Amino acid sequence: MHYAATLFSLAYCVLIGATAAHAVTCRDTTISASNPDSSYSADPVYATVTDSRSGLMWKKCSEGQEWDGVICLGTKGSYPWSAALARGLSDRTGGYSDWRLPNIKELSSLVEECRYNPSINEAIFPATPSSYFWSGSPYADFSRLAWFVDFFGGYAYSADRSNVYSVRLVRGGRHLDTFDALAGATSYTLVLARGWNLVGVSVEASITAASTFSDAAKVTSVWKWNPISSKWAFYTPTQIDGGAAYADGNGYDTLTTINPGEGFWVNANTAFSVPLSAGAAIQSSSFKPAVSNPVTVGGVHALPPGWSLVATGDSPTPAQFNEAITTAYSTPPPTAQVFANLTTLWAWDATKQNWYFWAPALVNSGGLSSYISSKNYLDPATMPSTPPGALSPTTGFWVKMP
Question: How much is the pTM?
Fold first, then answer.
């Protein structure tokens, strides 16, 4: 055996032996352990542990790590908030189907007050990284933020939902506040008509084109616009490679993933519906554009200049969406007029095969109605939604930005 391998094996045995035999180690001996070993009971078969005080059942390992019967091995995964929320949906550890992202109070309950780096009982949760862990709690004042816990020092903070952090899943519970990780989160169903449909992902959970639209009897093709490259991405279930060769030969990208907040086209052979993954509803304000002078970061789904295909989950009217993307540097409009944040907005009626059109410049000039009539477009105030005239969830729409 090589010396390096021998030394690694010896070190590993010492490590797992110490983890298995030792109780929580307090760095500050003047402080009693807030989460002593006696508060937890471990499942002898599955990598789970239950807190007897709250009834919460936790996975011993963070997502990305594997339990070998003694310790958590491997490298922890890192996920944006939307993916973190979705991690538990398909998890069946221990035969349970209700795994979820903990809310901020639940996650903070794991913090061991007598130690740091990591600030957790390592005898119960071995090999926990001293990193940031997402909670499922959104930040109330800013829709682009969510709460996390820093398990180096044990403090809770908020951060942009696009940041990638660690995840530990939980289920059950009885004593902590029931601010569930997916409370307020919603799942929507795409309702498609025969022909061309402009739809969108209205929650913070992406979808995969190949798994969502795999039935060639129902779908001819799916198209997504990339506003940065000004290029189409293409997928079809009618070809064994999903249309990759066709896309490459015609200058398109191959469509794999449709991200939160993105609109896309589906050419359907027949009317059908398909459920989408659950997630937090996307807010119109998350599309606020970045500003270059002075440099100001935009929203999570910041709109670039030019054309973008988008979708929201808060059911705004076109005027409300336009106002929601106002930045600190938008020019305030005169009384009784609207912001000119966007140039035009277009939504498609799959049944009527026609466009709903809205433009702030025409609203301000009083010419929107006559322009719509002259082009035989549809008045967005007549969109069949709740409330009437709103861009309802799963509705995809074009936005042209200056």
Answer: 0.58
Given this structure, which CATH class describes domain 17-172? alpha beta
Report the candidate in 179, 148, 178, 151 with the shortest Cα–Cα distance to residue 161: 148
Separation of CA 93 from chain center: 22
Other Cβ atoms within 10 Å of 253 Cβ, number: 16
Which tens digits make up the pLDDT trace of 169-196?
Answer: 998 865 444 444 444 457 789 999 999 9
Whole-number CA gyration radius for the chain: 25
The domain limits of the chain are 17-172, 186-401
378 DSSP 8-state letter: B
DSSP 41-83: EE-SSSSEEEETTT-EEEESSPTT-EE-SSSEESPPP-B-HHH
- Residue 249: helix, strand or coil by DSSP? helix
Cis peptide before 294, with omega less than 30 degrees from 0? yes
Q: Name the amino acid, one letter, at 150.
A: D
pLDDT in tens, 194-210: 999 999 999 878 899 99
Place of tokens 């006559």: 370
What is the per-residue pLDDT across 275-331, written as a single tens digit (0 to 9) for each?
Answer: 888 777 888 888 988 776 555 556 778 899 999 999 999 899 999 999 999 887 888
Q: Which of 320, 321, 341, 322 is nearest to 331 (CA)?
A: 341
| Distance, C-alpha 315 to centroid of its chain | 18
Please give the Cα distance from 68 to 248 (Å, whole number).
43
Residue 167 and residue 63 in contact, taking contact as beta carbons nearer than 8 Å: yes
DSSP one-letter code for 262: B
CB 32 within 8 A of CB 114: yes
- 394 sits in the region (left: phi over 0; alpha: psi -120 to 50; else beta) called left
